[in-house]
């Protein structure tokens, strides 16, 4: 076993953190899948399983002293399956956000095929040799540039489609749901932008290092190249499992909007009840006042049947009686 240089120790530490996150994400994904039975938690289960295999296989490949080719090839297969499952996760989410548009599905299919093609190139073109000191590994430069570029294209595509869907779909919704859709899209945009920033930083560093540095790993010689797979492992695993945080944010928005709409419906119902009660009272007033009006009319009619007394004549008659 080669000496534990600083890059190897750092790589082990980063992979341990990623495995811890993958264990939590795996059980959370199973729980979420049992609740919803939707494809996204199922994809996350597969990604976390691949992440759990990624770390130990990578540490084994950099510490191996024999059977170098098979050890490194096993790690390479799991590594690319993990990266491509992450890309598939992003592309599937983007397709859902875009209202399942056919053009988005076609573009996503081409991007995932592009990633698998470069993975096959990496499996074929990169070489591993067994020496007396251990395993000598030579990463193919063209393959790593193609792999990194494929990851960048997926990140940029998902972010652009999310922005486009937010501007295109929200104005078409009904006024009652426009506010909810707008807030959910803002969360989706924030999710994509933050995830893209971290993944883009890793891919940009990998691309820059691949273009200008040596891509060989010599036994006993410390190299930054050992850190790149470990950093990618941690960032990609966290980027997948941070989805649970954003799921909670979106659910809070939906519950808040539903609670608000329920309160508005209750207010409308109370107003309708008040109007209904007021109408009933007005009807009762009309029913009770109608007989009184008829009674007053009858009284007026009875008064018309009697002659009106002349007060001046009665006064003169009283004076005559007094004179007598």
Automatic annotation (TrEMBL):
Domain of life: Eukaryota
Record's compositionally biased regions (Polar residues): 311-324
Keywords: Membrane, Transmembrane, Transmembrane helix
Annotated stretches, region: Disordered: 262-324
Comp. bias intervals (Low complexity): 271-284
Residue intervals passing through the bilayer: 42-65, 77-96, 102-121, 142-164, 184-205
Protein name: Uncharacterized protein
Organism: Chytriomyces confervae
């Amino acid at each position: 076993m080669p000496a534990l240089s600083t890059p190897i120790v750092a790589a082990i530490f980063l992979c341990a953190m990623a495995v811890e996150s993958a264990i939590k994400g795996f059980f959370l994904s199973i729980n979420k899948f049992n609740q919803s039975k939707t494809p996204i938690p199922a994809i996350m289960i597969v990604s976390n399983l691949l992440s759990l295999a990624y770390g130990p296989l990578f540490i084994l490949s950099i510490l191996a002293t024999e059977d170098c080719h098979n050890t490194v090839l096993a790690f390479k297969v799991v590594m690319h399956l993990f990266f491509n499952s992450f890309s598939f996760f992003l592309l599937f989410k983007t397709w859902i956000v875009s209202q399942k548009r056919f053009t988005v599905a076609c573009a996503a299919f081409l991007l995932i095929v592009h990633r698998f093609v470069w993975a096959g190139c990496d499996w074929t073109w990169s070489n591993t040799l067994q020496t007396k000191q251990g395993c000598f590994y030579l990463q193919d430069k063209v393959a790593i540039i193609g792999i990194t570029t494929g990851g960048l294209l997926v990140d940029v595509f998902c972010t652009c489609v999310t922005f486009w869907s937010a501007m295109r779909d929200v104005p078409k919704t009904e006024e009652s749901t426009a506010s909810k859709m707008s807030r959910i899209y803002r969360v989706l945009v924030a999710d994509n932008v933050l995830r893209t920033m971290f993944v883009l930083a890793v891919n940009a560093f990998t691309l820059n290092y691949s273009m200008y540095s040596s891509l060989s790993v010599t036994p006993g010689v410390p190299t930054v190249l050992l850190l790149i797979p470990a950093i990618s492992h941690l960032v990609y695993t966290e980027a997948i499992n941070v989805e649970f945080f954003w799921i909670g944010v979106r659910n809070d928005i939906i519950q808040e909007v539903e609670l608000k709409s329920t309160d508005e419906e209750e207010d409308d119902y109370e107003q309708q009840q008040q109007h209904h009660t007021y109408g009933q009272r007005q009807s009762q007033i009309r029913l009770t006042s109608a007989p009184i009006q008829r009674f007053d009319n009858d009284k007026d009619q009875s008064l018309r049947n009697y002659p009106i007394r002349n007060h001046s004549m009665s006064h003169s008659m009283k004076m005559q009686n007094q004179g007598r």
